[in-house]
Specification:
The complex is a heterodimer of chains A (288) and B (245). Chain A has 288 residues and is of the alpha/beta class. Helix content of chain A is 35%, strand content 30%. In chain A, the strands form 3 sheets. Chain A has a 6-stranded mixed sheet, with helices on both faces. Chain A has a 4-stranded antiparallel sheet with strand order 2-1-4-5. A 3-stranded antiparallel sheet of chain A has the order 12-11-13, covered by helices on one side. In chain A, helix 3 packs parallel to helix 5. Chain B has one domain. Helix content of chain B is 77%, strand content 2%. Chain B has 11 helices and 2 strands; from the N terminus they run H-H-E-E-H-H-H-H-H-H-H-H-H. Chain B has a two-stranded antiparallel ribbon with strand order 1-2. In chain B, a hairpin with a 2-residue loop joins strand 1 and strand 2. The radius of gyration of chain B is 18 Å and the shape is globular. Classes of the chains: A alpha/beta (288), B mainly alpha (245). Chains A and B meet through helix 2 and helix 3 of A and helix 1 and helix 5 of B. Chain A: Its main location: membrane.
Chain lengths: 288, 245
Amino acid sequence: MIKIQGLIKEFQVKNKDKKTVTKRAVDNLSLHVKPGEIFGILGPNGAGKTTTIRMLTMETKPTLGEIYYNGESIKKNPLEIKKLIGVVPQHINFDNDLTVGENMELHGRLHHMSSEKRKQRIQEMLEFVELGDTINRMPRSLSGGMKRRLLIARSLIHEPKILFMDEPTVALDPQVRRRIWELIRALAGKGTTVIITTHYIEEAEALCNRVAIVNKGKLIAIDTPEAFCKSLGRITVEWDDVDGHQYQFFESRQEAAAFAGTLEHGAHIRRTNLEDAFIELTGRKEGV
Amino acid sequence: MLQDICTVFWRDWVVLKRRLPKFILSRMVAPMLYLVAFGWGLGRNIQVGSGSYLDFLVPGIMALNSMNISYNSLTPLCTERIYHRSIGEYIIAPMRFNAFIIGKILAAVLRGLISSAIIMILALAFGANLNITPLFVGILILNCVIFAEVGFFAAMKMDSYEELSQVNTYVLLPMSFLCGTFFSTRTLPEVLRWFIDVLPLTHTSYLLRGISTQSPVALESVAVLVVYAIIGFILGNKAFRDQLK
């Protein structure tokens, strides 16, 4: 289990007057992730999702706060904890001087795998993401979708118990995105804990057992996607009037239909989704 | 730790192996020009002490060349850090940061030594008299270590190739010419000489030349180089840890 307590990350940045100011990217974040779940961190751009992942994977140090893996602080034995985790970064960070196979080999060596085990796992993982025939190619010659799948394959070579995925499907076409979702579900099916950041609401809704909604570095709410929708009301009525686009939530379709009947203009009645909850919680003016 | 050092070194060896013919050819150009211009051309009829100018020149060229190669071997880390971000792979791995730094430095030393071997072969072909001893090789390695550390530090601190090239222009280039490589620093004005005598390349040049001509070894110069290497490692380590901020 992963437990985060009062996590704060501050950066020194230059403002428009070129003065150095302190910017708080993550603000007093506390949460826990259960073993074997797919946990989503959902938020608009700049919400602090990547910074949170970077602190959890020890790529950057928190300014304040504690992170525990199975009850042990990351400060106590970071190397042992690093053995448990795999990371799929948002940025495609292959070593461009190495082939696909050599990049995988480097990862295996960095995780102290035996030569035999490395060879076997590299082949297995490349097959798993359907890239078995790319082993001698340079990463730069692969398409965007292939690179994303390769990042996943690389992160899994050492069989991590916990997998961090930072926007794994960003800028991918729907077909590739669905394929990556299938890979994530397959991993969770094998007992891997998956922590995924995304700003695609449908991705969080489709994949995650629980979702933390963050905005401006702060945790806004944390629950299952179903519970978020239920808390608003299962049915949504959407309509346009002089004040703009409007929403209202209802417990049943009958109540929603009765309300829609009172409106002057036409209304759309549908099931409430995570996007509705997200917009309600983060504010309608926030860009996603 | 040793396994991790080997892994980091392995990565650089794989890359070097793939480019070895190109690497060797490109490393022959500058020393060949120095030897032709200063050794054969300008220095053919100049006597320095009891030997020829070519004998005087070769240790200096080896010192400056090993400096340049070791430094430039690690500057691509800057792009790996900023643009490709492939350094993240090492940061999240269960390895000690020192292993990364040592592995990278060793890979740069290897490049520096290959390059020095090329100069040695060329110099012998040009008729130079060299006395290569284990101590000579040791000083050469120490020089490579120091400037690999400078390269590592610069790659961790600089934010673009332009800034890195400024280190080349303002630090390495003046050192290449002034640190006893092409001429003795004794002819320089005292203030400048005092400054130049503090620089590591001066000590390397004089040590290599001394060993090559079988003169007594200046132990204080060896000590200065060791101190530079230790300081360089500490600074490199700090610069790498700063990536976590």
